[in-house]
Amino acid sequence: MSLVADVTMHGVDPATKSDTLRMEFSDMQTLFNGLNITLEQNVPLGPRTWYGVGGNAEYLVHPSSIQQLAAITQQAYQAQIPLYVLGSGANLLVSDAGVKGIVVVLDDPAFKQLSIEGNRVRVGAGYDLAKLVLDTARAGLSGLECLAGIPATVGGAIRMNAGGAYGDIGKSVYRIQAMDVRGQVYYRDRDDLVFSYRKSNIVAKFILEAEFELSPDSPDDLSKRVKEIFLYKKNSQPLADHSAGCAFKNPPSEVGATAGQLIDRAGLKGFGIGGARVSEQHANFIVATKGQTTASDILAVMKKVQETVYEKFGVELEREVVVWE
């Protein structure tokens, strides 16, 4: 998911990062004085993710406008403060230690606006993807129904080019509005955008808004298609369990098997450490037992899966889940 679980460290030198943080965060309130922004301190991030585990955000903020977001971004850039972007938390794992810096959540109505004119749909990056799929299907617009059952915000889905066997979001994106690490707002049109398997060429810190170009179709047919895709995923994936979706990206097609198939063939279904285990229903899902799992458990299972698959098949699995460590 996420607008998503994206993080940029603003050029902070790892060797001096801890000293910088001690100096800057000791006077954080003064840094943002006059911006009319409330900083929450030591906010648990686990409840904001689908895994439900992980430590705290040192600071968390909910900007109420693009102007506020720009001010936060500019101050963080100048002070070399790490800035994280949290969307729905659907594809995010936060370490048990949490994160130092500022976590930005674009959940204000200012970032959730929707307008439909003809076959063009403009929507804020904080808008829920599942709701957008239903909205466009009911409006008789085809192109996003392939995303049924994928949890994310619109911004996060675009950044990682969310999709599956039925298609991806990138093919319908017409234009995006974005903000860089210095707080500058700009647009990128379809000709400038490149989407491939689980990634895009968008390097902006924030995706603010997206415009989709869709195709007219029957609302009834689209609604049926959405239900069919969702039911397929419900029957083939452990949607009722605590997970972050597919744990690993599928390897190149020449490998001849998906990540889930390789993990299954390696005999790892059901393998667990602590409260985390490889799902018996779909091997590319690592699920967590509520109240009994740590982020370290999940990371340990991921590592074991990667090591075993490489030993048996010579294939290096790349994590699809974003990890804040």
Description:
A hairpin with a 2-residue loop joins strand 18 and strand 19. The protein contains 8 helices and 21 strands. With 325 residues, the protein is an alpha+beta fold. The strands form 7 sheets. The chain has a 5-stranded mixed β-sheet, with helices on one face. A 5-stranded antiparallel β-sheet has the order 7-8-16-12-13. Strands 18-19-20 form a 3-stranded antiparallel β-sheet. The relative contact order is 0.15. The chain has 3 domains: 104 residues, Uridine Diphospho-n-acetylenolpyruvylglucosamine Reductase, domain 2; 110 residues, Uridine Diphospho-n-acetylenolpyruvylglucosamine Reductase, domain 3, CATH 3.30.465.10; 72 residues, Uridine Diphospho-n-acetylenolpyruvylglucosamine Reductase, domain 1. The longest helix is centred in the last third of the chain and has 19 residues. The N terminus is likely disordered.
Précis, in short:
This protein has 325 residues and is α+β, with helices and mostly antiparallel strands. It is 27% helix and 25% strand.
Q: What global shape is seen?
A: globular
- Quote the distance from N terminus to C terminus: 18 Å
- CATH architectural label of the largest domain: 2-Layer Sandwich
Would you count the extended β strands for me?
Answer: 21
Q: What's the overall average pLDDT, rounded?
A: 91
Number of helices: 8
What percentage of amino acids are in beta strands? 15-25%
Q: Mind telling me the C-alpha Rg?
A: 20 Å
| SSE run | EHHEEHEEEEEHEHEEEEEEEEHHEEEHE
Structural class: alpha+beta
